[in-house]
Amino acid sequence: MPVIEIADLADPRLADFAHATDVGLKNGRGPHGLYIAESALVLERALRAGHTPRAVLALGDSVEQAVALVGPDVPVFSGPGELLAELTGYLLHRGLIASLERPPLPEPRALLAGARRIVVLENVVDPTNVGAIFRSVAAIGADAVLVTPRCSDPFYRRAIRVSMGTVLQVPWTRIGDWTSTRELLTASGFHVAALALADGAVSLRDFAATPPERVALVLGTEGDGLTPDALAAADTIVQIPMRHGIDSLNVAAAAAVAMWALA
């Protein structure tokens, strides 16, 4: 399929990109919804993960790269940067964007089967933090991520961008309430370690000195931290030792520190 020069922004083949919101992409198209990948690196990681591309928008030198990545059967659209920005609502700083089909989410039990270190995100609402945590998970070596119903979607554009596409590599899925999640983690042999400021919390340094064989590290929302239900579900409450009167870190930074200590 040749590269298609955009002549009309009303072309229905461009619908995936036409000022599409994350929520609209998730809920409106395809069997499981769509997501947007920005940059050739992220697109390449998506393809390696087995995700199905639908279309690509590319600028200048990125056109040949896009065609090489997706092959002849996926339409690659091109046009002036100003025109593409008018279509999408934002500038294509990374040269290309692609629409891809969301894969079905796996069952939580399947993700836990061979895992030793997992991260549970409770109500983390900022996609930037979600993406940064996934990048640390991929780099430091946790095996999977579980996210609660109110947690920001890891397939949102900003989360994928901040994660450098690692959201598309790290196994993850949604979980339900804490009663069922606690039962699942316990049945799967996990020690639940909640990262929180609380009376009686154990120092991360001490906890990491003799860690359990399988650990589920639970991190809470920005500002308020973990809910009472999450704290009640924990086997151990863990706190990062700090100096100079600082009592907490950004949730993404805290996740990286705790994962490194427990790796």
Describe the structure.
The protein is of the alpha/beta class and 263 residues long. 35% of the residues lie in helices and 19% in strands. The chain has a 7-stranded parallel β-sheet. Helix 2 packs parallel to helix 3 and helix 6 packs parallel to helix 11. The longest helix is centred in the middle third of the chain and has 15 residues. It starts with a strand and ends with a helix.
* Structural class by sheet pairing and helices: alpha/beta
**End-to-end C-alpha gap:** 46 Å
Helix content: 25-40%
- Label the overall shape: elongated
Average of pLDDT: 93
Number of strands: 12
Strand order of the largest sheet: 8-7-6-11-9-12-10
Largest sheet, described in full? 7 strands, parallel
Q: Can you give me a brief rundown of this structure?
A:
With 263 residues, the protein is an alpha/beta fold.
